[in-house]
Amino acid sequence: MKSALRYTSIRTPKEFDDLLNALYMKVKPDPEEIVVPSLQVISVRGNQPPSSREYQDAIAVLYGFGYGLKMGLKFQKLSRPKGYFDYRVGALGTFWESTSATLDVNDPTSLRWQAYLVVPGFVSEALVEKARSQARVKHPDIPYERAALETISEGRAVQALHVGPYDREQPTLDRIHRYLDDRALLVSGRHHEIYISDPRRTLPAKLKTVIRLGVRQRDA
Fold first, then answer.
1. Which residues of 96-111 are buried (b: 16+ CB within 10 A; e: fewer)?
2. pTM of this prediction?
3. Which of 29, 65, 109, 119 has the most other CB atoms within 10 Å of its CB?
4. Rounded CA separation 20/86 (Å)
5. What is the DSSP letter of 185?
6. Helices (H) and strands (E) in the chain, counts
């Protein structure tokens, strides 16, 4: 198992890049264990299917916030907080879960999701509100009120890289579950996907998605 990654002590762009690389950019098709630190994120929650307007609006909100914060701080349209450093806007992540026994991403009655972007630890509630106000002026049609600054705590997990269409993830999930069975691990967290590729610019066969499941040791 990989040791826990650093987050709270990050002070430079390189350290932030190293974190994002370990979280998804350098993940391989073979399953591996990882200990994910608590991360501060801008997040949007919902329950409509991924093809819905609600989820697409969430993506617009997150990237509007993500780049609004980054560029606002870089060009000092937002006041730079203590510990500021320039940083890369990372990939979109989404936790998927269901109120029923089986996850069905097309069933809004049971589907729940949390889409997010990781932000550095120096981002505060006050900074988010200032960025929200600026974003609303530029794009009043985007529902920025849906976004919130939150902390996600994932901890021990198993992840693998899936290459191909989103609806053909089962072989990758099967590899992960075989890995869990071989090591007496049980799923204890939400189904988590991190979308490395832009589906608007990437052929379905070449889409890269990290699939991650929170885990715990099976009781003896």
1. bebeeeeeebeeeeeb
2. 0.94
3. 65
4. 14
5. E
6. 4, 8
